[in-house]
Amino acid sequence: MLAMLAPVPADILASGLEVMNPHGVVAFGTGAPSEEKSGAWSFEFFSKEEFKDGKGPLKVLIYGSATDSKTAHPLYRPGYVTAMAVYERVTPAKAGKHPDDSVRPEYALETDTKWTMFWEVSHLSALPKEKQIALNKLLLPGTGKLKAYAGTPPRGPLLVVVPEIIAKSL
């Protein structure tokens, strides 16, 4: 199963689980204009064939990355995917912000920086500890024998292959 693997700060991810709107959508920012070429990188990544309309659902595996919290955070487990969702679309930013605050995690709105775009998901849910996926169990897409993903925390979204034995349990 092909999936998108993406890091989201654990505090923002937890806040995203609380987003309630009629569409059931949560939006996460990508492509900070302050990072060299990040807007171009984000546009290039989300322009891939796998993200085009009509391609069917694409699972999103979310790595709850570092948090500002000084206490243990249940969505921050180094080396593991701690949440899942379904990719919906990308929305361009307007003046660095999402055009609809109702799809943004409240914590992100409080601490947000400017973004070039937002990737939106539906069906966002935390994975119970026994279903969390070790990053080093994922594979890299390609032809022939698939290579193992190194298991290092991603710095931005990337496409991965979830082995069938793991995909069946999701």
List the helices and strands and how they pair.
Elements: E1 2-9, H1 10-16, E2 25-30, H2 38-46, E3 59-65, E4 80-81, E5 83-92, H3 106-111, E6 117-126, E7 133-134, E8 139-140, E9 147-148, E10 158-161, H4 164-167
Parallel strand pairs: 1-3
Antiparallel strand pairs: 1-10, 2-6, 3-5, 4-7, 5-6, 8-9
Could you please describe the fold and organization of this structure?
By secondary structure, the protein is an alpha+beta fold. Strands 2-6-5-3-1-10 form a six-stranded mixed β-sheet. A two-stranded antiparallel ribbon has the order 4-7. The chain has a single domain, classed as Archaeosine Trna-guanine Transglycosylase, Chain: A, domain 4, CATH 2.30.130. Strand 8 and strand 9 form a beta hairpin. It is built from four helices and ten strands; from the N terminus they run E-H-E-H-E-E-E-H-E-E-E-E-E-H. The mean pLDDT is 88. It starts with a strand and ends with a helix.
What does this entry show, briefly?
With 170 residues, the protein is α+β, with helices and mostly antiparallel strands. The protein contains 4 helices and 10 strands, in the order E-H-E-H-E-E-E-H-E-E-E-E-E-H.
